[in-house]
Amino acid sequence: MVKLSEEEWAVCRDDAATLLEHLGYSGWHTTRKFRLFCCAAARRVAHLTELNGEELLRVAEADADGVADPADLAKALARVEEYVRPTNNRLRRRRHGRFKAQRWRWNAVYAILLALAPSKQANEWRSSVCIAGLETWPPDEPSVAELSARVDLVRDIFEDPFRPPSQRIDPRRLSGTAVALARGIAADQAFDRLPILADALEESGCDDPAVLGHCRGCSPHVRGCWVIDLVLRLGVALYAEPVAAPDPARGSVSGTCRPSSGPGR
Ligand SMILES: [Zn+2]
């Protein structure tokens, strides 16, 4: 079991897998969050494959939010499976040889596969830990930037586990304007509007430096951004318009993150 201290959590810059392990054992994060990390991390390396990663990952994200058409999901999954294990023998041999020589390329394909089907690593949490640790760079290239970017994704999607989010924003003072802004940002994935949300939250009496700093900082934001999720989750109790609520957190997690297996195995 990985259990970090608050200081260890704060200083970690290159080990997203350990952060995710810690979050998994803390037990109160939703499977949706882990799935969205899978999607965001897979998107970073999708260009290394010949798959249409953007299209596939949009389906995976919609599924994480419970709004995907099951037929679209099945089709997307079939496309990756067919890519990994082509029925054409010649293609299968060629692809297998290529993946063997370029393991990092196979790992990028595997990341997309896990984003679409996290059950291949037992569950969303295990899949997120696995993707966070996948080597998706050639042996002679530095990995520092990619590892650091994965940590940034964890910190964007998951709030600090040592500071309960309920203490950050007073739901009784949350304004309709702030909720509407958060809803619009989530719908359009327009994260450049986050500084405007910060102003609206401040007017609602929020002075939490982590919330305001997150909105006004220069970190990358992705679907599942913890500030947007927090405002929407609190806002759903106050304002009538329905907001897709995250799935209930799974109480326990199990399974081991086995190394990715190559095609045809
Ligand atoms: Zn964010």
Layout of helices and strands:
Elements: H1 6-11, H2 16-26, H3 31-45, H4 53-64, H5 70-84, H6 89-101, H7 103-116, H8 124-133, H9 144-157, H10 176-188, H11 194-203, H12 209-216, H13 226-235
The structure holds zinc ion.
What do you see in this structure?
The protein has 265 residues and is mainly α. It has two domains: 145 residues, no CATH class; 71 residues, no CATH class. 57% of the residues lie in helices and 0% in strands. The protein is built from 13 helices and no strands. It is globular. The C terminus is likely disordered. Bound molecules: zinc ion. Zinc ion binds next to loops.
Q: How many structural domains in the coordinates? A: 2
The total count of helices amounts to 13
Uncertain spans: 242-265
Strand count = 0
Which characteristics define this entry?
single chain, 265 residues, mainly alpha, 57% helix, globular, binds zinc ion
Can you give me a brief rundown of this structure?
With 265 residues, the protein is mainly α.
